[in-house]
Amino acid sequence: LVVESTYGDRLHEAAVDIEPLMAQYLQKTFDRGGNVVIPSFAVGRTQEILSLMRRIKDDHLVKGHDGFPVYVDSPLANEATAIFLQSNPEAFNAETRALFDKGVNPLVFPDLKISASADESKQINFDSTPKVIISASGMCEAGRIRHHLKHNLWRKECLILFCGYQSVGTLGRTLLDGAKDVKLFGEPIQVEAEIAKLPNMSGHADKNGLLDWVSGFTKTPGQIFVDHGEDQVAMAFAQTLRDTFKVKVDVPYSGTCYDLATGACLVETTGIPIEKKPGGRVGATDERAAKVFARLIASCEKLLRVAQGCKGMANKELARFADQVDALCDKWTR
Question: I want to staple 229 with a disulfide (CB 3.0 to 4.6 A). Which of 44, 156, 234, 332 is the partner?
Answer without folding.
Answer: 234
